[in-house]
Amino acid sequence: MALVWRSVFLVNLCKQANSPHVILHFNSGQPRCFAYWQEFQKCYAKTDSPKECTLPANDYLECLHHPKEMARAAIVQQEYARQVEKASKENKKTADAVADSVTVGVGLIQRQGSEDSKSS
Question: Which cysteines bridge via disulfide bonds (predicted)?
Answer without folding.
Answer: 33-63, 43-53
